[in-house]
Amino acid sequence: MREERVPVLIVGGGGAGLTASMLLSRQGVEHLLVSARPGTSDLPKAHVLNLRAMEILDDCGVAGKIAERGTPPDQMAATAWYAGFAGPDEDAGRQIAKLESWGAGGENDQWRSTSPWLQANLPQIRLEPILKEGAEELSPDGIRFNHELLELTQDENEVRAVIRDNHKGETYSVVSDYLIGADGGRIVASQIGVGYEGLGVLTETATLHVTADFSAWAKDPDVLLRWILSPRTGAMVVMVPMGPDHWGPESEEWVIHLSYPVGDPRAQSNEKVEADVREATGLLDAEMDIHRITRWSVDAVMASSFREGRVFLVGDAAHRHPPTGGLGLTSAIHDVQNLTWKLAAVIQETAGAELLDTYEPERRSADERNARRSLENAANQFQIVAAAGVTHENTPEENHANLRRLWSGRPEDEEHRLEVMKTIRAQSMEFNELNVEFGYTYESGAVIPDGSEPPAPVDDIRVYEPSTRPGSPLPHAWIDDGDGNRLPIKDLVRPGHFLLVAGEDGERWCQAASGIRGSGVPLDFLRIGHIEGDSFDPRLMWARRREIEREGAVLVRPDRFVAWRSVGGSENPLDELAEALAKILARPVLAPAGA
Fold first, then answer.
1. What is the pLDDT of residues 208-234, one digit of tens each?
2. Cα–Cα distances in Å, from 375 out to 203, 222, 364, 381, 440?
3. Which residues, including other chains, have CB under 8 Å from residue 142's CB and lie 6 or more apart?
4. Low-confidence residues of the chain, pLDDT below 70?
5. Please, are residues 8 and 24 in contact by the beta-carbon 8 Å criterion?
């Protein structure tokens, strides 16, 4: 059996694996990606990409293509609930309520001030080819589809994987320093003895991927997700446009989700699922070309461990949860951003191996929260249906009567209407969850606390409070490079490099950073001020968010999380900064003599 050697082996060619490949390439780490599948996903599946995910995909060089191919911002600005969809009833498809979603297409100032990117939407069936193309451009010989992991073993020095090339029917081995399991939990987890713990099952769902013209009934061009309360069957149906060339009502393709009670045998029959969808939506005779019907549980599971020895789990291999909130694929992208810079630092010997111990505590806390939030988002959607009085047990006439109470205008129906609207407004926890998506923080050995208290959020789900407190994401600001070029502060952080951002009078911190960089730490530095500095803060956006004095400094990790800060100056900036980096990198950091 022939043998290959590579620093990192990635198993899995979905969103997590392909993003990991691009990030490793950007940091100069040789690697190999193998995927058992012959090609990219043939399912629409995940489609929402949040602000941080788009920033990471920008690091990979593919965000622009994704935004260009995806849903126009003004056609994903809202989500809405409807009384049925089609049919002879005069109220079929009547809008019950509408909420802004994911920054309202750029109109929500809080979202626009958080990131240079807007929220994006592109189904996985069309996203993954872009990611694969990007990964192959950066690593032309390192991406192998239809190459299947058969088994793996590891010891304290290496991981050995047996791979089958399904094209040729040949088997070979790959020896790597580390392995990233991005295979959705198919084989890597079981090979290393990791199990899964369930957080709860709410319901089962059947999903139809169809080509159809629904423009006669889907009237709102700004709505991305349509939540249909079906009076005909008492079911909740979700309809989502999938493009590819037009969006909103003119979309050529759609996915339709229909929920079933756990164990309902009707969900297992394609014929019954199609009949149930047609009845629930009122599309009894509408022409639909059904590409595929899939089934999945509205549940959440977490891996018992995200790491075993030299093997790390990311994305669906580490955690799986419902699509409500769009936190699945985005969490996977966040996972690999956290892991890849640490792997690069250890492989390139700028950090000690103990740095890798910080991956699980940092990501598990964020991923567990995302999984629970996804379940809560799903549960609240069912509460909306219940509050409206739409149930399987009612007759269609009873469901119609309960829905009409929402717009009857009768005094005796006002309390009912207000209760339903309150429940719908609460679903802003799914569509306006900026602090969940962007504002999560880390605590680990790769973060040096400064004793400050975290800011008290106005709302822990919906309101992101920018901060440079260690463990926080680097706040967004537009910076002038001094030559009139405007760029987001995130772009100052180079792949695999730390960045020290000092205040206008923080020259001594920059001098210290210069000395430390000479000892082999990938560390960039600059001063940012409104009038003085190396780069400038023309809108005082950074000044409002930096939380340091003119003599202070903030140390940013390669994944753009704050690792350490000094609010003011220091008598011994060299020693203080070196000590902080030594703790973060889990190795001595010694400045050269005379620095």
1. 999 999 999 999 999 999 999 999 999
2. 11, 26, 16, 10, 18
3. 21, 25, 30, 31, 32, 33, 135
4. 591-595
5. yes
